[in-house]
Design goal:
The structure holds five protein chains of five kinds. Chain B is about 40% helix and about 20% strand. Chain B is built from 13 helices and 16 strands. A seven-stranded mixed beta sheet of chain B has the order 2-1-3-4-5-14-13, sandwiched between helices. In chain B, helix 5 links the parallel strand 6 and strand 7 (about 170-180). In chain B, helix 2 (about 55-70) packs parallel to helix 3. Chain B starts with a strand and ends with a strand. Chain D is globular. In chain D, strand 9 and strand 10 form a beta hairpin. Chain E has one domain (about 1-325): ABC transporter involved in vitamin B12 uptake, BtuC. Chain E has helices at about 1-40, 45-65, 75-105, 110-130, 150-155, 165-190, 190-200, 200-205, 210-235, 240-245, 250-260, 265-280, 285-290, 310-325, and strands at about 145, 165. In chain E, strands 1-2 form a two-stranded antiparallel ribbon. In chain E, helix 1 runs antiparallel to helix 9 and helix 1 crosses helix 11. Chain E is globular, with a radius of gyration of 21 Å. The termini of chain E are far apart. Classes of the chains: A alpha/beta, B alpha/beta, C mainly alpha, D alpha/beta, E mainly alpha. The interface between A and D is large, with 50 and 53 residues. The complex binds adenosine-5'-triphosphate (2 copies), leucine (LEU) and magnesium ion (2 copies). One magnesium ion (MG) binds next to helix 1 of chain A.
């Protein structure tokens, strides 16, 4: 589905992504893990067109999409969420969702003035859809709240909710789980699996929660220092010495100091 | 009875430093008339000030409209800058039929503006000044000069009129460069002027504005040391500000060898303002003309007295100087003609503007003085 | 206070102000203020579209207003006799050549591979183009400016009804906005602001110095009007009879009549634009714009073409300012380029938008009318303030004279004071966005 | 029972003029202890932390530090009293370098803090590498490390952390928890909100479950971990 | 010899005035940039703050001269400067306390503060005119020139003169010192860093124990000092006039922005960019070329790229071009 070849992105002299090459298979839920600063988010940003690559190539279903602007990629069915939530803070939660779908006829001025009947119909449908998503995210009571006033986790939920408003082909999730309650995260995981099964979405998921990754992802790609360090099933990755050293670690050293009751 | 006259001048904005003296000049004339008790059977004359801002046509129009409709003035002394003067004339004076005498709007364009016979000015059109400057320069043997002008209708109009005249008379204008008033720095202009060269720099600007800035920079860099100063540039502040640095500089501004100007200066001194300040005499004269015309018409209504402005300003009749308004009113009451000369030797021509008598000045020992008349 | 009653209440208050002005200072004064107030409201609407809807910090309002004014001259004045023959074609061809030079340079930049050759070609095109342009253009200018310079000296206009200049002013401004938007809209906040300010200054510089176009600083006066002249009415016996029948003095009546006619024209334009802005704001388009204003990165990721939307709204807002500019020049009856000052035409409009309530169309309209009313009325207020303050002082004391002398300057001080008071009690504007 | 070192006692309050978010919520921590707050998103955990730190109005209830009523002190005065806080969001100075961020953490300290800084760099080696880079240019997890490092620089008497491990990799999370335990054992009480609840509860001496601004469950970390109801509803089974 | 003459002409009409004007703008821009950097708004009242400080200094200068105190070859105003600074400090602190503080605690959007500062500008406008009037005031005394054009010609025997004014020298030196001090202060001192922290994230600054009131006070006091110094030096070099000080605002803003808002280095660079683009692009090269080129090639025409009418247009055009390549100014400024 997506092939990344030899991608390099430098900031000043620093090579945040340093010749990464990877394939994301159609219909998979690929996990992307790696130490902080490995270049995962940067990789996402380059694929999603937020950043221009220094060199390298990205193709989507054979088509070269390197350096296309984000809105163009969105129209090709490529969606992403942000690690640091990017909500539309002065708009309500519902508006945050309703603005997502492309091709709304009310988004041209002409229709805003002279096609008001059509807009009203579309809006009603959109509104119903948004309410569905809101219900799924368990934030019904916040429909009319300004998104800026949400709690940290709720903002992350909203991020996810936006991807559910349209029919995407591939969705990049950047740490949707960070700051989200684990019980809810399980529900989110279920939804991802369902979207993957029922609507055939492809997912790429950055996450530091191994349980979550384990439940969802196959294959898992581990990045480090801007390059792909290892790739395989989670079990394989977990057994990889390098990955343990750089990323997983060996657990608490101060276990003994924890009070036992 | 109380006759109200609007004094519409730019009390704020780029001319804010000369307008107080102008207003004081006009109000001096009004006080004189009120005191005499001879206008329209003892009418008092009060001034209603309004801010023309000099640059904001809309605000000026609104202010003028207000003094007309709200304060009920029956004539306007003003406005100062040609731009707002045109706007007030078209949007307030003509619709309301109010006489307007400007002491200082000198743009040649106003000569041909439609005015229903309501508009006059005690300042000459700049077309005339171009001739004067040419004559003075050539009499002194200067044939190669640079010009800088303030970038408005006054400066540009004057510079154009002068250049046309001067070149027709065989002179060369090496450069004619605009400067904007109120700006921070004039090095660029002076640089260009210096590069073009010339024996004299003609500064068609305002003494309180960029004009002085250009002179300062030109003197400091040694680009020019002789200047020609037209009307907007002559003011006693030059003595304090430049003094001996300007020795040899010359110029001319409206005025005659009639004793009016000197009289006015003394009167102004008594009233606590500077009678040599630019356009202050013209302002006194503008106000005086309005009141004398009213007396002549026996009415303070513009429609009645607009046709008498010429009568009182020009021959025939007894010559009237500043401070003699009471005498003029007496004469008019007695049915006699007056010829108002005033502080600036008023002589109205053609479309109702000053004929343009000029006095030539020259700097010597750090002060300027009048050396002749044209 | 509940916004639903707040807005009508405030508009009611403005109406009371206007009526009060009419009663105290005369209806002519009140209507004059109202008319400029309506025009200001339109400008504020344009700025609000850009800032309130899309967060574009445009402080080049003055430039667009001036272009509108230029349209009024170019549409309504008669062509100067002999000007076209003397140099009009040189100018047109010169301008075309100049435009082609720029296009050529841009094409070279786009089409050629990066490198020294590209730079050299571009430079060569620009330099050669510049000289050719000057060679064709300058003689035309000289010839035109030589035609009776003290009253014309410019190319003149098309001698069409001045009303036509309102849409044309909008188009002219839109065209300029397109060029500016294409180059500068990538800039953020204050950087965009200073760029737009710069462009406005450039537009004014052109207007001031290209005498062939609209006489430069020599001003064009006596423009045509869409409504009758007062004098004509005063000389029209039926009108006079009717005025007298109504118990009015014909002079006053004629003034009121023409001003009312203007008010009606302006109000129609304002209402149409207000309706359009309001519909746009409440539609999905408006929602998209707010999203873009809130967070551009996210809006991009959600498939919105931020650049195109910015350009669109920049053009629209500027066009509205252009329309207002043409209307204002029509009302003034003259074009005086020297009077275009940023303080008056840009910052004052911004004050209107912010005090009214940015992001809210009704707020902008309210701010436009209210602030203009203040701008005119602070003058007598400032004087009154000084008189009150100094009344306690000994008559003729130095301080008192000083205060009365400075009264004219209290105009701005009063303005500032009132602004601060309003913003203190409703910091997000009088009718805030939601 | 003696009074805990820091206690937010039956706090009720909300943001500005909005509705109350907290309803009689109590959280407390003893010297040398780690207290962990867990709960669903939007339960009011962050709000409770901010209330303890004086960043919003508490309509009723009190906050006491070491027996002293500090309910009416400004946040800044609380800092001077020795409280340190890492908020959940915007918790770094993005335009300043990493090192300057840490220096700002030590702002109220007048002594030489270079050794503390060295400790922070030991704990988060990546920060040492990036110390002259603007913090806003860091990756999500690196920012989180800066935020915690900044709070550690204060050498506080009590440390409050709002989701310190959100977005950090497992290895760093372990190190962070190790360090938190060490710090706590030196006698500094630590009050922390966590969504990585299971790991957090393992090291917690005391734990609170907040739901809709109210205390739903309270106990030791182990007790709550063992409670099936808590596990199912809040810890993801 | 001719080449030297050409250089002297260039120095006299382009380089020296450009440097001096640039330094004048830079000093003003430093104040603007500081407010933007720390308090995050464009302060429209800055021009009038400068005017106020200068007005007070002028009054002080007059008093000193009346008392017979002068400063030798240097302008007496420099002795009165501290008085002006002190008064301006009081004024801006008072303004902050009565006006800006309210919006800061409310966390109002920057643009509201901009408009509020316009209100303050109007008020200061009135105050300044009330205190000192509207006229042009010349308060420079002491030795006006370091080198006069005539003196230079006589001393060197060259055909061309070079004039350097005392105030020009002082301004350039003061501007550079002020910039260096400010740079050092913001980046190296504790208070300076806390000011930057405050501007970056106010809430977090609070959590770090930074006293916001103190930060704000220090900012305003520095701004008052910078504004007064800038105003006085400008007034000494040209002359004092309330209206001109208001007009100075635009080029000052342009300088601060093109240099990069919030950056002291940028303010200096911006000042010179604006000044030199005004002075050079419209310069007529006739005289310079006349010296350099052989006699028969010497130009008749002015050899001027653009007439001086377009001097502002050109300097703004350059500004825009700079911004197109460096969207947040030469030194990576902030944007809110
Ligand atoms: N704008 C920037 N300028 C300079 N360096 C940057 C910039 N953005 C990211 N980096 C650096 O690039 C590296 C990769 O960052 P990235 O955000 O991609 O990491 P990540 O893998 O997503 O980490 P995390 O798990 O912490 O989110 C980091 O070391 C970061 O400091
Ligand atoms: N600034 C604010 N203004 C108004 N309401 C707010 C604000 N911040 C948060 N809220 C509301 O308060 C409630 C509690 O928020 P809080 O941030 O305390 O949740 P939390 O328990 O920390 O959740 P999370 O785990 O998602 O961070 C939420 O419903 C949220 O919408
Ligand atoms: C007051 C005057 C200096 C005005 C000038 N003569 C003009 O016409 O604009
Ligand atoms: Mg990341
Ligand atoms: Mg939280």
């Amino acid at each position: 589905m997506i092939v990344v070849e030899n991608l390099v992105k430098t900031f000043g002299g620093f090579r945040a992504v340093d010749g990464a090459s990877l394939r994301i298979e159609q219909g998979s839920i690929t996990g992307l893990i790696g130490p902080n600063g490995a270049g995962k988010t940067t990789l996402f940003n380059v694929i999603a067109g937020v950043l221009q690559p220094t060199s390298g190539r990205v193709t989507m279903m054979g088509e070269d999409i390197t350096g296309l602007p984000p809105h163009a990629l969105f129209h090709k069915g490529l969606l992403r969420t942000f690690q640091i939530a990017h909500e539309f803070s002065s708009m309500t939660v519902r508006e945050n969702l309703m603005m997502v779908p492309a091709g709304q006829s009310g988004e041209t001025l002409w229709n805003a003035w002279f096609g008001r009947k059509r807009i009203a119909d579309e809006e009603r449908a959109l509104c119903a859809k948004a309410d569905e998503v809101i219900e799924f995210l368990t934030i019904e009571h916040l429909k009319e709240e300004r998104a800026g006033n949400l709690s940290g986790g709720q903002k992350k939920l909203l991020e996810l909710g936006r991807t559910m408003m349209v029919d995407a082909k591939i969705v990049f999730l950047d740490e949707v789980g960070a700051g989200v309650n684990r019980t809810l995260l399980n529900t989110i995981g279920d939804a991802i699996i369902r979207l993957n099964k029922e609507r055939n979405y492809t997912f790429v998921v950055i996450e530091h929660d191994m349980d979550f990754i384990g439940r969802l992802c196959d294959p898992v790609i581990c990045m480090a220092e801007g390059r792909v360090l290892a790739q395989g099933t989670l079990a394989e990755i977990k057994a990889n010495e390098q990955v343990i050293e750089a990323y997983l670690g060996t657990g608490l050293k101060n276990k003994d100091k924890v009070a036992v009751v | 009875q109380d006759v109200k006259i609007g004094v519409v001048l730019g009390f704020t904005g780029p001319l804010e430093s000369i307008t107080p003296a102008m207003a004081a000049g006009a109000e001096l004339a009004m006080a004189e008339v009120t005191e005499s008790g001879l206008l329209l059977d003892g009418a008092t004359v009060t001034s209603v000030r309004a801010d023309s801002t000099c640059i904001d046509a809309s605000a000026a129009t609104a202010a003028a409209e207000r003094v007309v409709t709200s304060d009920g003035v029956t004539a306007i002394m003003g406005a100062d800058c040609s731009g707002v003067t045109g706007a007030i004339l078209q949007n307030v004076a003509r619709p309301n039929g109010i006489v307007m005498i400007s002491p200082s709007a000198t743009s040649p364009g106003l000569s041909t503006a439609e005015d229903d016979g309501l508009f006059f000015r005690t300042a000459p059109s700049d077309a005339r000044q171009g001739v004067i400057i040419t004559n003075i320069l050539q009499d002194r043997g200067f044939n190669n000069v640079a010009v800088t002008y303030t970038n408005n209708d006054y400066g540009k109009g004057l510079a154009d009129a002068f250049q046309a005249e001067f070149e027709a008379a065989g002179g060369t204008v090496t450069i004619s460069a605009a400067h904007e008033d109120g700006k921070a720095d004039y090095s660029a202009e002076v640089g260009a002027l210096a590069s073009a060269g010339g024996d004299v720099l003609v500064v068609a600007g305002y003494v309180d504005q960029g004009g002085s800035g250009v002179i300062r920079a030109a003197l400091d860099t040694g680009a020019f040391d002789t200047f020609y100063l037209p009307d907007g540039m002559v003011g006693s502040v030059l003595n304090d500000r430049f003094g001996a640095e300007l020795n040899g500089t010359f110029g001319a501004y409206p005025g005659t060898d009639s004793p009016g100007a000197a009289l006015f200066v003394t009167m102004a001194e008594g009233a606590g303002f500077d009678g040599t300040s630019a356009f202050a005499p013209e302002s006194y004269d503008a106000a005086a003309l309005i009141m004398l015309a009213m007396a002549k018409a026996g009415s303070s209504n513009s429609a009645d007295f607009k046709d008498h402005v010429f009568d009182v300003a020009n021959e025939p009749g007894e010559v009237i100087y500043p401070g003699e308004l009471a005498k003029a009113l007496e004469l008019i009451a007695a049915g006699q003609d007056v010829n108002y000369e005033g502080a600036s030797a008023v002589e109205l021509i053609g479309p109702g503007e000053s004929a343009g008598n000029y006095q030539e000045i020259e700097f010597k020992d750090g002060v300027y003085s009048t050396i002749g008349f044209r | 206070m509940n916004p639903a009653i707040r807005a009508p209440l405030l508009f009611g208050f403005v109406a009371v102000l206007m009526i009060g002005t009419g009663i105290v200072q005369g209806w002519n004064s009140a209507l004059l203020i109202l008319n400029m107030g309506l025009i200001s409201a339109i400008m504020a609407l344009g700025v609000n579209l850009q800032w309130g809807f899309a967060g574009l910090f445009n402080i080049g309002v003055m430039g667009f207003v001036a272009l509108g004014g230029l349209a009024a001259v170019l549409i309504s004045t008669p062509p100067t006799e002999g000007a076209w023959a003397a140099g009009g074609w040189n100018i047109v061809i010169g301008l075309l050549l100049g435009g082609m030079t720029v296009i050529g340079a841009i094409l070279a930049q786009h089409r050629m591979a990066l490198g020294r050759i590209r730079t050299l070609t571009t430079l060569a095109i620009l330099i050669a183009g510049f000289f050719i342009y000057r060679a064709v253009f300058d003689p035309g200018v000289t010839a035109i400016e030589a035609i009776n310079p003290s009253v014309s000296g410019n190319i003149g206009g098309l001698n069409l009804p001045v009303l036509l200049s309102w849409p044309v002013g909008g188009l002219l401004a839109a065209g300029a906005a397109w060029i500016i938007g294409k180059t500068a809209l990538g800039l953020r906040s204050d950087y965009l602001a200073i760029a737009t300010l710069g462009i406005a200054e450039i537009i004014i510089a052109v207007l001031k110095n290209e005498d062939w176009l609209s006489r430069g600083v020599k001003n064009v006066i006596g423009l045509d009007r869409p409504v009758p002249f007062e004098i004509e009415l005063q000389q029209d016996p039926t009108f006079v009879a009717r005025a007298v029948g109504l118990g009015l003095d014909p002079v006053t009546a004629s003034g009121i009549y023409t001003k009312l006619a203007y008010s009606a024209l302006f109000a129609v334009v304002l209402l149409i634009l207000l309706w359009m802005a309001q519909m746009a704001l409440k539609s999905p388009w408006g929602r998209m714009m707010r999203a873009i204003r809130d967070n551009e990165t996210a809006a991009r990721a959600m498939g919105k073409d931020v650049t195109a939307r910015h350009l669109q709204i920049f053009i629209l807002g500027s066009a509205i300012c252009g329309v207002a500019g043409a209307m204002m020049t029509t009302l003034d009856g003259q074009l005086t380029p020297g009077s275009y000052q940023p303080l008056r035409f840009t910052f004052l409009v911004w004050v209107m938008v912010i005090v009214g309530g940015s992001g809210n169309n009704f707020g902008a309209v309210l701010g436009g009318i209210l602030i203009w009313w203040l701008w005119v009325q602070v003058e007598p207020m400032g004087l009154a303030l000084m008189q009150i303050l100094s009344s306690g002082l000994e008559d003729g004391s130095a301080l008192q004279t000083r205060m009365i002398d400075a009264a004219a300057h209290m105009r701005l001080l009063t303005m500032g004071l009132l602004m601060l008071i309003v913003l203190r009690f409703s910091p997000r504007g009088l009718i805030p966005e939601r | 029972m003696t009074e805990p070192f820091l206690i937010g006692d039956t706090m009720t309050g909300g943001y500005g003029k909005g509705p109350d978010i907290l309803h009689g919520c109590t959280i407390a921590v003893e010297r040398g202890e780690i207290a962990v707050i867990v709960g669903p998103n939007g339960a009011g955990k962050s709000t409770a932390m901010k209330a303890v730190f004086g960043m919003l109005n508490v309509n009723s209830g009190a906050v006491r530090l070491d027996g002293e009523d500090i309910t009416h002190l400004t946040p800044q005065e609380r800092v001077v009293k020795g409280m340190g806080f890492v908020p959940q969001t915007s918790n770094i100075f993005t335009s300043m370098t990493v090192e300057e961020n840490l220096e700002m953490g030590a702002f109220i300290r007048r002594d030489d803090f270079s050794d503390t800084m060295a400790q922070v760099y030991d704990l988060f080696p990546i920060l040492k590498e990036k110390r002259h880079q603007a913090a806003g240019e860091l990756s999500g997890g690196q920012r989180q490390q800066v935020a915690v490092g900044r709070a550690l620089m204060t050498k506080p008497k009590v440390l409050m952390l709002d989701e310190p491990t959100a977005g950090v990799s497992p290895i760093v999370m372990d190190e962070l928890f190790d360090r938190i335990i060490e710090v706590a054992r030196t006698g500094i009480p630590i009050l922390m909100v966590e969504q990585n609840a299971r790991q957090a509860l393992e090291i917690a001496d005391k734990a609170y479950v907040l739901v809709q601004g109210r205390n739903a469950h309270t106990g030791t970390g182990k007790q709550l971990l063992a409670d099936p109801e808590v596990r199912r509803s809040f810890l993801g089974g | 010899m001719d080449v030297i003459n050409a250089l002297v002409v260039l120095a006299n009409f382009v380089i020296v005035p450009g440097l001096a004007y640039g330094a004048q703008l830079a000093l003003g821009a430093l104040g603007v940039t500081l407010i933007y950097g720390i308090l995050r708004f464009s302060n429209f009242a800055h021009g009038d703050t400068m005017a106020f400080g200068t007005a007070i200094t002028i009054i002080g200068t007059n008093a000193l001269i009346a008392a017979g105190i002068t400063f030798g070859p240097l302008p007496t105003a420099l002795i009165a400067l501290p008085l002006g600074i002190a008064a301006t400090c009081l004024l801006v602190l008072g303004t902050d306390w009565t006006v800006y503080k309210f919006y800061r605690t409310k966390k109002a959007a920057p643009v509201i503060l901009v408009i509020v500062s316009m209100g303050v500008m109007f008020i200061m406008n009135g105050i300044v005119r009330f205190i000192i009037g509207v006229g042009d005031i010349n308060f420079a005394d002491g030795e006006r020139f370091v080198v006069t054009a005539r003196g230079f010609r006589e001393a060197t025997g060259l055909a061309e003169g070079l004039a350097i004014r005392t105030t020009q020298v002082i301004t350039v030196i003061v501007a550079l010192i002020a910039m260096a001090l400010l740079f050092w202060f913001l980046n190296k001192t504790r208070t300076g860093k806390s000011m930057r922290a405050f501007s970056d994230n106010e809430d977090l600054a609070l959590l770090s124990g930074i006293n916001p009131d103190w930060v704000v006070k220090v900012t305003w006091m520095i701004v008052a000092a910078l504004a007064t110094t800038a105003g006085v030096l400008y007034g000494l070099d040209k002359s004092f006039k309330a209206f001109t000080y208001f007009q100075l605002l635009l080029p000052i803003f342009a300088a601060a922005i093109v240099g990069g808002l919030g950056s002291p280095l940028g303010a200096i660079a911006g000042g010179f960019v604006i000044a030199f683009s005004e002075v050079t692009v419209t310069y007529a090269w006739k005289r310079v070329l006349g010296y350099i080129l052989p006699e028969n090639l010497a130009p008749e025409a002015l050899v001027q790229l653009m007439s001086t009418d377009y001097k502002f247009a050109v300097s703004f055009a350059i500004l825009i071009v700079v911004l197109l390549f460096k969207p947040t100014g030469l030194f990576k400024g902030k944007s809110v």
